[in-house]
Amino acid sequence: MKVLIVGSGGREHAIASSVAKSPKVDKIYCAPGNAGIAELAECVSIGAMEFEKLADFAQENQIGLTIVGMDDPLVGGIVDVFEKRGLAVFGPRKNAAILEGSKAFSKDLMKKYHIPTAAYENFDDPKKALDYLKTQAKFPIVLKADGLALGKGVLICQDLTEAEAGVREIMEDKKFGNAGNTMVIEEFMTGREVSVLSFVDGKTIKTMTSAQDHKRACDGDQGLNTGGMGTFSPSPFYTDEVDAFCRKYIYQATVDAMAKEGREFKGIIFFGLMLTEDGPKVLEYNARFGDPEAQVVLPRMKNDIIEVMEACINGTLDQVDLQFEDNAAVCVVLASEGYPVKYEKGIPIQGFENFKDKDGYYCFHAGTAFKDGQIVTNGGRVLGITAKGKDLKEARKNAYEATEWIQFANKYMRHDIGKAIDEA
């Protein structure tokens, strides 16, 4: 089988790495890909939002399965374009990808079907949002741009003045573009955050092993929100008791709710959870693999990823026994100094050879490119250094040791990824 992966980040590199293990696959393409993915796949210079060109490529090259890694093309309707041409594609259709594409939609869905989440209100008028804030006695409070904002469209405001400034930033100054035409204002929840990725075939849901992301740019969860600075799997805070509650009241309930709304969901649902004193609640949904969650979850998966994805498409996921290794993994993101605001690109990177033939160690490329015959930085998040271990402490130690194998000017990382492990 020939497989096409759509995307260019660390998540797509992790997907390509899993696909390359499948005995069903003899050729991988990636559009547009990056310098690391190029070692596993033939990179094709078609943008992720060029749906017709991608579908043309898939037809002309007899692609057996297209895997869409990114949120933008899914929300934009790439799956619908492929399905109309009779092409096999993994991911939700446009009317289902709205689960991630609109926070207002997903909050209303949860309210309608009694899926636990934070109290909230939706606004499409900045004046009404500002008036509502004046009635709120409890701070901090959370402001969310409704649409896609590269994982950065969430503001946690400590007081009324900060919240009012946040509303103007999102809805009037359009800091996140059209994503801020509508906004969600919700209560600030406290507790441990956990990410649970799942495969869905429209009816059946099979959850993967748990993970925990670190969104803030700086140590101690300080600084600006980013796309993710590192992650670990599994989460010691995701207990059997938590899992049982989520299976009953969140996971299957979400799949059933989408089906009842005429929005059958096939693909990946990412559940961002907050483990509050009142029990687990949904922080957010994503309609694809998390990045960098995929970098710690997929290396631990025992199944052939192609078989699982085909089962999602064919509606036979109930026949799959999804299994994960009894170990742990930690990913530390190496970023360019200044991310997520302003940073240099085009800086040469050294040390990739250190990962050759090192079992349990991975160097996933996120923002890299080829320039003058060498691999250079080409984004804010440059690489995801992932390592396995028999437990989380060993995996964390291995991952941080491996970050020293890579060198580039202005290399930046957090030094406390998985520190919560020591407190568990």
From TrEMBL:
Keywords, in A-Z order: ATP-binding, Ligase, Nucleotide-binding, Purine biosynthesis
Top-rank taxon, per record: Bacteria
NCBIfam families, sorted: purD
First-level EC class: ligase
InterPro entries reported for this sequence: ATP-grasp, ATP_grasp_subdomain_1, PreATP-grasp_dom_sf, PRibGlycinamid_synth_ATP-grasp, PRibGlycinamide_synth, PRibGlycinamide_synth_C-dom, PRibGlycinamide_synth_C_sf, PRibGlycinamide_synth_CS
MF terms (GO), sorted A to Z: phosphoribosylamine-glycine ligase activity
Protein name: Phosphoribosylamine--glycine ligase
Entry-linked Gene3D superfamilies: 3.40.50.20, ATP-grasp fold, A domain (3.30.1490.20), ATP-grasp fold, B domain (3.30.470.20), Phosphoribosylglycinamide synthetase, C-terminal domain (3.90.600.10)
Record gene name: purD
Cofactor: Mn(2+); Mg(2+)
Similarity section: Belongs to the GARS family.
EC number: 6.3.4.13
Pfam families for the chain: GARS_A, GARS_C, GARS_N
Residue ranges of every copy of the ATP-grasp domain listed in the record: 107-314
